[in-house]
Every structure is written in structure tokens, then in C-alpha cells.
Design brief:
With 383 residues, the chain is mainly α. Helices cover 70% and strands 0% of the residues. Helix 4 runs parallel beside helix 9, helix 5 packs across helix 15 and helix 14 packs across helix 15. The longest helix has 31 residues. It is globular, with a radius of gyration of 22 Å. The termini are far apart.
């Protein structure tokens, strides 16, 4: 005979039990995407191309803090490595493995990407040479052939596209342990690659930091996310083990900052910083990703499922593509009579950022709803 009290207790226990760490939909990762794009927006709003002369110490400190927003790109890399590797591992036995992956990636990436390049050409915000190379996803490598990067945000998309091109073959043909070994090799060798690049360009101020955008110098974030994905998708991982790993990575991050701060790990203006600056951040982002998965599968999931950040995360691709162009539009309007633009005082900077951000968010939302989603709906038809 069923006991109603016992049934209610059993239902309560089941509802309180954690969900699987890996699920078809992981809303907490949209929150992380939102944090990543928010960092990029802050960076371009309050640090990038902002004159820092004649600022008070307080204003200079605020702008310096805003400069950390550029690390949102590195968080995107960790997330991409994690999600793409998981998709590939779960589908590696399917006969249409390559077709399914590449068609789905193309439908997700190409429409908005081609549209922004067209807009850049028509508005004369880029050169034909840069646009042509960007169509081949070589925008991060154009300085190697003497072509300046005229729309800087495209560099990271080129890195990710190179990853998408090569990684499926590796995941399909190599064992999980072998792929994990490749990730470890990338994580270990990337700092040496950046160190070599630093010395190769140390006497060339123009190219001093562009080499960070070359694919071979920007792979370790992707490898960190991929390594975590291999572990969680390929093995039965206890929640406590993921918690221990996350805490360990945070401890390594703190130790690196404490021991190497004096030697310049916080800046890319010396050899050690050029090689290692991003490493603790990659470890920290991997740890945070693990913690978000842990919290997001418990009754406390609301902590890591912020609706505003998830909204930004959902439109983050289009927002990333268009926001820098909107800053240029606002600056152009400021030069032609729009009041309050063109000063490094806090009020004008906030006004400039507000105008660029709101217009970018609106465009990205409309693009996702009325343009990008139309192509995404074709995924099931073609795969």
C-alpha cells in the first residue's frame, strides 16, 4: 500500500538530488557567456583607444581595471573548447559526424559573420585586403603579409575557426587519452611559443602585441576547456572530484600571481608576462566553469543562472561582432555634433558606452531573432 507521506519524502529527495553535470542544455554556461561579453564591452567602452594622459590616479585605476575586460575573450575560448569537444565526443560514433558538425557550425557562424564583413566593406571601415583574408578566416594572421587588422574583434573568431577546422579530425581519430595528451602539450608549449614571439617582435612596437593573436599563441584556453570536457564527457566523474579540481586550479592561479607578480606576470611588457600572463586566467576560468556546472545542477542553480547575463550570452555572438562598429558610429556622431562625446571624463565616457552598448544590444537581439535563428532552424533539415 502506498504511503502518501513516504511518496512525498521520496519526491522531495529526488527533486533535491543534483542533476547530471553534462546535459543537453546547460543554462549556467549562457551566464558565463554573458559575463564574457560583458567584460569585452567594458574593455572597449572604458579602456581600448581611451587616452590615459592627464587622468587622476583614481580614474587611471578604474580604466586599468576595465582593461581586464579583454580577458572575456579568453573566457570565450575556454567555453568554446569545452562545448565543442563535448559535442564531438558525444557524436564521434555517428556516420555523419563531419557533415553534422560542419553544417551546424556553418549555419551558426557564417550568416552573421558574412553580414558584418559586408557592412564593413560598404561603410569603408576596412580594406579590401583585410576583408578578403577575413573571408578565409585569416584575419588574425594578416600582419604576417603586411595587412593591418582593421576590425580587431575578428581575430578571435579566426582562432576559433582554425580550432573548428582541425579539432574534429583529432577527436574522431585519436583516443580520449590521446586527445587529453594533445591538450596537455598545448597548455605546456603555448607559453614557450609566446616567449619566442615576444623576442621576435621585441624591437617592433607596432607588432609588439599583435603576435598574441596568432593562432599558435592563443590555443591554451581552448585546450583547457577541451581537457575539462574530455574528463567530464569521457569518464564517470564524481562531483567531489570536480570540486577538488576547481579548487586546485584556483589555488594554482593564486600561487602563480603571488609568486610571479613581482616579476611582471600581470603585464605583457616583459618576457615572463608575455609568456605567462594568460595562463593563470585560463586556469581560473576552467575552475569557474567547473564550479558553475556544480552549482547549476543543484537546488541553488539560480545563483549561476542570471536572466540578464543569459540574455547577453544568447546574443553574445552578434553582440561581439557589432559592438566595436557601434563605438565607431558613436564617436563619428560625437565629432559631428552629438554632445557629451570625446572626453575622458567619467560622465562622457559613461554616456558614450551607454549609447554604443544599447544600440549594439538592440542590433544583436534583432539579428538573433530575425536573422540568425532562421539559419539555425535549418540544422535539423540538413543534418
Amino acid at each position: 500500500m502506498n504511503d502518501p507521506v513516504m511518496n512525498d519524502e521520496r519526491k522531495s529527495e529526488m527533486s533535491a538530488a543534483p542533476e547530471p553535470l553534462i546535459r543537453p542544455v546547460m543554462p549556467e554556461l549562457d551566464t558565463l557567456r554573458g559575463l564574457a561579453i560583458l567584460g569585452v564591452l567594458i574593455y572597449h567602452g572604458f579602456y581600448w583607444n581611451i587616452g590615459k594622459d592627464n587622468l587622476s590616479s583614481r580614474a587611471h585605476a578604474i580604466l586599468t581595471f576595465a582593461g581586464l575586460g579583454r580577458l572575456g575573450v579568453d573566457l570565450f575560448f575556454v567555453l568554446s573548447g569545452f562545448l565543442i569537444t563535448g559535442i564531438l565526443l558525444r557524436s564521434r560514433a555517428q556516420q555523419n559526424y563531419y557533415k553534422r558538425f560542419y553544417i551546424r557550425r556553418a549555419l551558426r557562424i557564417f550568416p552573421a559573420y558574412l553580414l558584418i564583413i559586408l557592412v564593413l566593406i560598404v561603410s569603408r571601415k576596412t580594406t579590401f585586403a583585410f576583408a578578403a583574408l577575413s573571408l578565409a578566416y585569416l584575419s588574425n594572421l594578416t600582419p604576417l603579409v603586411g595587412v593591418p587588422i582593421t576590425y580587431t574583434v575578428l581575430w578571435s573568431l579566426a582562432v576559433e575557426e582554425h580550432f573548428y577546422f582541425l579539432w574534429p579530425f583529432l577527436v574522431r581519430r585519436v583516443s580520449k587519452l590521446g586527445v587529453a595528451a594533445v591538450c596537455a602539450a598545448i597548455i605546456l608549449l603555448s607559453p614557450f611559443s609566446r616567449l619566442i614571439s615576444y623576442y621576435a617582435y621585441v624591437n617592433d612596437p607596432f607588432d609588439k602585441f599583435i603576435w598574441n593573436q596568432y593562432t599558435w599563441n592563443a590555443l591554451d584556453g581552448l585546450a583547457c576547456g577541451a581537457a575539462l570536457s574530455i574528463w567530464l564527457n569521457g569518464y564517470a566523474v564524481a562531483r567531489r572530484s570536480l570540486l577538488k579540481l576547481s579548487c586546485f586550479l584556483l589555488a594554482v592561479t593564486g600561487l602563480m600571481w603571488i609568486t610571479l607578480w613581482h616579476w611582471g606576470i600581470a603585464t605583457r611588457r616583459n618576457a615572463l608576462g608575455a609568456a605567462l600572463e594568460v595562463v593563470p586566467w585560463n586556469f581560473a576560468f576552467t575552475a569557474i566553469l567547473g564550479l558553475f556546472l556544480l552549482i547549476g545542477t543543484t537546488k541553488h542553480k539560480r545563483i549561476v543562472q542570471s536572466a540578464p547575463l543569459q540574455f547577453l550570452g544568447r546574443i553574445s555572438y552578434g553582440l561581439y561582432l557589432v559592438h566595436l562598429l557601434m563605438f565607431d558610429v558613436v564617436d563619428y556622431l560625437g565629432k559631428h555634433g552629438l554632445p557629451g562625446i570625446g572626453s575622458t571624463r567619467p560622465g562622457p565616457l559613461i554616456w558614450r558606452a551607454f549609447l554604443a552598448w544599447t544600440s549594439s544590444i538592440l542590433i544583436a537581439y534583432l539579428s538573433r531573432k530575425h536573422f540568425e535563428d532562421r539559419f539555425l532552424a535549418l540544422k535539423t533539415r540538413f543534418t
